[in-house]
Fold this protein.
Amino acid sequence: MKPKAYITRIIPEDALNIIARCCEYRIWESETQAVPRSVLEQNVQDADGLFTLLTEKIDKDLLDMAPRLKVVSNMAVGFDNIDVAECTKRGILVCNTPGVLTETTADLAWALLMAAARRITEAERFLRENKWTTWSPMLLTGMDIYGATLGIIGFGRIGQAVARRAKGFGMKVLYYNRTARPDLEASMGVRRATLEELLSTSDFVSIHVPLTEETRGMIGERELSLMKPTAVLVNTARGQVVDEEALCQALKERRIFAAGLDVFHEEPLPADSPLRDLDNVVLLPHIGSASIATRTKMAVMAAQNLIQALSGKRPEHVVNPEVLG
Ligand code: NAP
Ligand code: GLV
């Protein structure tokens, strides 16, 4: 008998074919709506494997309803939507998709950095709203990127990819990371700094830590107050790493120049979020890894992780390898 898998969204055909060859599967047939919790609860009851997205909360209550579950394969590198400790306790493997999305996400962090610094989305709105009456010396002026200082918080795969791009802009790069990376300091021409030094001396600060109990609220009122009034904050990591209310206030009072955000406390960003009223923030709907090629690779990798686990093989990307012994 084939193992049973539940897939929580329509996924690229290449990935679906991999699962279809090895599993009996059911799927939430939507592109635009996340699977309702009640539907997920019903479908985990006889599932051996779950193919999930970061929109699904895989918590203790859900796991209690899934006695056969052997693997949760997340189509994302981040896995803060999954209670990994609870999965490990039950011998359930958790898999993710590291690496394949690194460069695409770093590109987007740079798109946000540049858009916020040079007021790109604000300027485009200005033109479309027919406000462009003439060229004017200081109209829509922003911040220079070339030669500025970039501070990277979280110097892992994506943080390093963001740093590599800074070379072409003649930037000085500082990083703040849990683990020192002397191996990279010489080869990449970067320097480790304390969080305080990084925040107070950088012209651009880009966040690339995972969301954990240590990083939740890492950038709050105090940290924002250390930043230069001319600085730009970019967050493509997770919304909860930044105190969103404090950020909103800092932007409103022009205590920092601008921000570029791909991630939020609540996603989708609520219609009444005060961030929407500010002209010095660029807001994107969590599209960091959203290139056709990368999303396809992520789906295929998540499908392979799933079927490897279900066929008793060691999946290539396991978050909790201790389950395998
Ligand atoms: P990664 O390679 O694991 O890098 C994370 C880095 O953060 C590591 O260098 C790690 O340090 C550091 N770190 C962890 N906890 C820390 C702490 N408390 N203080 C300081 N540094 C800490 O992960 P990645 O592949 O670059 O991805 C990073 C995150 O980006 C993901 O977890 C995800 O949330 C987010 N992401 C978002 C999108 C999007 O669409 N917007 C796309 C992809 C990823 P160590 O070296 O000590 O481990
Ligand atoms: C996206 O946010 C990811 O973690 O892959």
